[in-house]
Specification:
The chain is an alpha/beta fold. The chain folds into two domains: 233 residues, FAD/NAD(P)-binding domain (3-Layer(bba) Sandwich); 106 residues, D-Amino Acid Oxidase, Chain A, domain 2 (2-Layer Sandwich). The protein is 35% helix and 22% strand. The protein has a seven-stranded mixed beta sheet, with helices on both faces. A five-stranded parallel beta sheet has the order 7-2-1-11-17, covered by helices on one side. A three-stranded antiparallel beta sheet has the order 8-9-10, with no helix packed on it. Helix 1 packs parallel to helix 4. The longest helix has 30 residues.
């Protein structure tokens, strides 16, 4: 089969103590390749699909995420799971009063950005793949160049596999990226402390009403709350603050001590209104510290036969881009389509990277500006102006 004589593994590696969210771009790539009868193997560190929480909710944009789902022949399945009402964007003042409420039209879900839980999206993609496509419990330790674009993947269990194309869909702390560039993620200056609430309409009606059907944001003095309505009566909340990366260590705080973390957060959010402070005091899940990282902008690399990147491995950026998962999935679909359309792997990857790199740089620049705006001294006014303009 011309360039497709070997399999095309891509490695999804989640280093310990780092962001371990699902990465749908690689699964999208695998799905599109299989639709065109191109063999692909997925290597995943996780022991099984159900080993961990998959994270919050995602909005799928027509020209990126939905475009990729259409290429994967999964758009109709997505729309049966999606929540168009989740597009609601609400801005709340530090006193808890609503200052902006952007409610989307009820119809035309494909023209908007309907929401879907990360776990549901990942399940949709996994279920679409052929049996045994994903090899679970495979931790990549190194990638060895063998020449002529062929690389050997070494895993922690002592096994190896050779590939004529290794697609690094392995996230923020990519092992594959280290063969292409010396760039490493840098702390953005902002940390999220994640918490959550279950059966919210019954158990936490005040917080449910404040969050509404989509996303609620409150910003003040380089701090804030971001609450997202998920399916199944769950709200996921990020208590956000511009702070030192080791803020908890400086405070002598044990992150597993829920009461101590709660007290530290309440001290930091002194003066905020009671409705918002409920997002700290009424937690059902405890707290997870999530410092936000981003790759330097611009992040590019010199084309290297047999290797390429997609998603966070290629363009890790702050979640304030609103584009992370969407770009990741578009990356996966574009790479797969390039492999289908070109006569050699190298031509395909070259064509893909000519699209990927400038698109990634533009998005990353926007994301860096957005997080700086949101956590500036006048962040609330800046974000409110943006929301008003776009609704």
């Amino acid at each position: 089969m011309r360039q497709h004589e070997r399999r095309h593994p891509y490695e999804r590696h989640h280093p310990p103590h780092r962001d371990r969210r699902s990465r749908p771009g690689g699964l999208t790539c695998a799905r599109v390749l299989q639709r065109h009868d191109i063999p692909v193997t997925v290597y995943d560190l996780d022991a099984s699909p159900a080993v961990r929480d998959q994270g919050g909710t995602l909005d799928m944009h027509p020209d990126t995420g939905q475009h990729a789902l259409r290429a994967a022949d999964l758009l109709d399945d997505f729309l049966t799971l999606a929540r168009p009402e989740g597009q609601q964007m609400r801005m709340v003042g530090a006193d808890g009063r609503i200052v902006f409420d952007g409610i989307p039209p009820e119809a035309d879900t494909t023209e908007g950005n309907p929401e879907i839980d990360r776990g549901q999206l990942r399940g949709l993609l996994l279920d679409s793949l052929k049996p045994d496509t994903v090899h679970w419990a495979h931790k990549l330790t190194r990638v060895e160049p063998l020449g002529d674009g062929v690389h050997r993947l070494h895993f922690a269990d002592g096994t190896t596999t050779d590939a004529d194309l290794v697609i690094g869909a392995d996230g923020a702390w990519s092992k594959v990226r280290s063969l292409l560039t010396n760039a490493t993620p840098r702390y953005t200056g902002v940390t999220f402390v994640e918490t959550g609430f279950n059966d919210v309409d019954t158990r936490h009606p005040r917080l449910a009403a404040l969050t509404a059907a989509g996303t609620m944001m409150a910003l003040h003095n380089q701090q804030g709350f971001i609450a997202q309505r998920n399916s199944g009566g769950h709200i996921r909340v990020y208590v956000a603050m511009r702070t030192d990366e080791d803020w908890h260590q400086r405070a002598g705080l044990d992150l597993t001590d829920t009461a101590a973390v709660q007290g530290a957060l309440l001290d930091r959010f002194t003066g905020w209104g009671d409705p918002l402070l409920g997002f700290i005091t009424d937690t059902d899940t405890g707290y997870i510290n999530r410092p936000l990282y981003a790759l330097p902008v611009p992040h590019t690399w010199t084309h290297t036969p047999g290797l390429t990147l997609l998603g966070d491995a290629a363009h890790l950026m702050s979640p304030f881009s609103g584009m992370g998962a969407n770009l990741t999935m578009r990356d996966g679909a574009d790479l797969a389509q390039a492999l289908v359309s070109n006569t050699t792997i190298d031509r395909a990857v070259t064509a893909y990277e000519k699209i990927l790199l400038p698109r990634s740089v533009e998005a990353a620049e926007g994301a860096a500006g957005a997080i700086d705006d949101a956590f500036s001294p006048d962040g609330a006014a800046r974000v409110l102006a943006h929301m008003t303009q776009h609704h």
